[in-house]
Amino acid sequence: MPVAQTSVATSPVWFAAGFALRAYNTFGFDVRARYACRIESEADLAAAVRDPRAQGLRTLVLGGGSNVVLTRDFDGLVLLMALAGKRVAHEDSHAWYVEAAAGENWHDFVSWTLEAGMPGLENLALIPGTVGAAPIQNIGAYGLEMAERCVFVRAIEMATGQVVEFDAAACRFGYRDSFFKREGRDRFVITAVTFRLPKVWRANAGYADLARELAQHHGGETPHARAVFDAVVAVRRAKLPDPLELGNAGSFFKNPVIEAQQFDTLVVREPQIVSYQQADGRVKLAAGWMIDRCGWKGRALRAAAVHERQALVLVNRGGATGADILELAEAIQRDVLARFGVELEQEPISL
């Protein structure tokens, strides 16, 4: 069942060759695309990939551009996802099933669900990007991952134009990972996502920073969903820079998950290491803590730097290139590996 769209184009809007992408990536890198096309409907997408100008070219889908490091001009076609629309597709006695188009701003969508009286996504407030990007990365924060709420992902196969609906199992969600980030990359373009929001709501407020923020403003009271939303926004704003003010892609590195045996050896050398026991017996480590202990917090490599309040975040202080950011990331990875014997994996895709 397609999402009701706020605007439908009979044909996609193409922009002049050499289209500037600075406003379409949150690092603010000054790179260009050979071609760019604004996609406002599934018909636009089908028309764009059939267009003679697109033949033989690589394609890149950009929504908010919050999970990509553009290291050079893109010699291909950039699809600027602007599919809009959101609705309650279905509800039963247990849950609402809410469908949103891929171009919807993620934070605005989360806010809309709360205003409509449908909680369940509040822990994911203020994450940059669009709805369509959320399944690719399986975004998560403060004790919740998008996979826990996702029911279906609607996508179009680029080679055939066929519409395919993936259930949650077919999406193969993992920690900041999915089918669309691996095997499905460059094969499918996500056009809509359906979420299941349970009618029996329970606050998910166990994360330490979130619990402290709620305690400060709500004392011992049981928080309501809007209070959790507001607390998440406050915590994120206190720790993370606004991409509109300082170019960044949020958390640049994943928190590594290691085997229990490796952790037992590591904790002898590093007894203060911040860790989280996982259900499968493995242990998740706090990448930001390790980066900080290696002395990188606040340090810079030319115009690329590690944020002074959150070591997981790499920033563009102005004039940095994608290559600068990757050079900084590699230096951090080398130091963390040398001290802790742990490899850090970056979250954003590099192109």
From TrEMBL:
Pathway: Cell wall biogenesis; peptidoglycan biosynthesis
EC numbers: 1.3.1.98
Job of this protein: Cell wall formation.
Keywords: Cell cycle, Cell division, Cell shape, Cell wall biogenesis/degradation, Cytoplasm, FAD, Flavoprotein, NADP, Oxidoreductase, Peptidoglycan synthesis
PANTHER family given in the database record: UDP-N-ACETYLENOLPYRUVOYLGLUCOSAMINE REDUCTASE (PTHR21071:SF4)
Database matches in Pfam families: FAD_binding_4, MurB_C
NCBIfam families for this protein: murB, PRK00046.1, PRK13903.1
Species assigned in the record: Paraburkholderia acidiphila
An annotated Gene Ontology molecular function: UDP-N-acetylmuramate dehydrogenase activity
Compartmental location: Cytoplasm
Cofactor requirements of the protein: FAD
Protein's name in the database: UDP-N-acetylenolpyruvoylglucosamine reductase
Listed GO biological process terms: cell division; cell wall organization; peptidoglycan biosynthetic process; regulation of cell shape
Domain annotation FAD-binding PCMH-type: ranges: 28-200
Entry GO terms, CC: cytosol
Family (UniProt): Belongs to the MurB family.
Active-site residues, Swiss-Prot/TrEMBL: 176, 251 (proton donor), 347
Reactions mediated catalytically: UDP-N-acetyl-alpha-D-muramate + NADP(+) = UDP-N-acetyl-3-O-(1-carboxyvinyl)-alpha-D-glucosamine + NADPH + H(+)
Enzyme class: oxidoreductase
